[in-house]
Amino acid sequence: MDLVGACRAFVHVSDRGGFTPGAAAARIPQPVASRRVAALERHLGGRLFDRSTRRAVLTPFGREVLPAARRLVRLAEELEYDAERARHSPLRLAVPETCATRDLAALGAAGRDAGVRLDFRPGPPGTRSAALRDREVRAAVLAVPPGGAVWTVPLGVGAATAPGVRTLFLETLRVGRGERAGGGRRLWIQPEDDVPHVRDPLLRARDALGLGPGQVAVASSVADAATEVLVRGDLLLCPAGQAEELGLYWCGLGEPVVARGYDLVAEGPEEAERLRVPLAAALAHCLDADPGAAPAPVAGTDPDPGRNP
């Protein structure tokens, strides 16, 4: 028996004083209302209405159980309202700050096609991880080592002038004998790449090559780093797409070769997969990744056997 439907018919018939107006209020045919009330009476083991009168008059038993029936109907309506709101409420998704607005719009459109309304929360890697852990978001695009990533993004260097080489090596940043200490070019690591699998190999290479402590450093923001690139001739660690967006020339980086790695993580594996599959292509575009490309090279390998002249 549909207990909620039967209680709803019972409440409306009681409130309207008759089966016909009560059925209309419940938006069901009058015979259906009569059958539901009769089924509820059999289920509860007592008569709810005195049928010896023309009006639907409650029996003493009916008056006793009516308040509980009202509570059940009210709770059912609240449940239906909450479920409807949950279906239409946006899913908060933490994404990298480097995602362009137009790409996020395309990702949002892909979400709508999949029946999901996305609410983007841009932030650096640590903030995204914390937001997912603290349940401020339901899903997050997290930075992971390329070996275990769904999306990989090769990193190179962006420069204000054409580098003239396919691959630039960190050793070219060494300060010459005639230059003052601290006067060499710098390679800036933006906040999105301030993660161990990108930052640490670069810092180890810096120290091994005898570069100055400030010649490979983490910038406070992409804007600050890009300013130094334009004004001072420094370099920005970035993917090719971001370099193009900033109006910079781009080439690969050698020794070490580093790459971003990403995965979409949610509160549960089922929800993560539900999002990952329909959003894969749009997310890859947001991240400047190729969903069909091979994994990024392992740090320490050299994609270009030729060195800078």
Please give a structural write-up.
Residues 1-59 form the HTH lysR-type domain. GO terms for molecular function: DNA-binding transcription factor activity; transcription cis-regulatory region binding. This is Regulatory helix-turn-helix protein, lysR family. Keywords: DNA-binding, Transcription, Transcription regulation. This protein has 309 residues and is α/β, with parallel strands linked by helices. It folds into 3 domains: 3-88, Arc Repressor Mutant, subunit A, CATH 1.10.10.10; 91-150 and 264-287, Periplasmic binding protein-like II (D-Maltodextrin-Binding Protein, domain 2, 3-Layer(aba) Sandwich), CATH 3.40.190; 153-259, D-Maltodextrin-Binding Protein, domain 2 (3-Layer(aba) Sandwich), CATH 3.40.190.290. Helix content is 44%, strand content 18%. The chain contains 10 helices and 13 strands. It has helices at residues 3-16, 19-26, 30-44, 60-88, 101-113, 125-133, 196-208, 222-232, 240-245, 269-287, and strands at 49-50, 57-58, 91-96, 118-123, 139-143, 151-154, 156-159, 167-169, 187-189, 216-218, 235-238, 249-254, 259-266. The strands form 3 sheets. Strands 8-12-7-11-9-10 form a 6-stranded mixed beta sheet, sandwiched between helices. A 5-stranded mixed beta sheet has the order 4-3-5-13-6. A two-stranded antiparallel sheet has the order 1-2. α5 links the parallel β3 and β4. α1 (3-16) packs across α4 and α2 packs across α3 (30-44). It is rod-shaped, with a radius of gyration of 32 Å. Residues 177-181 and 293-309 have low confidence and may be disordered.
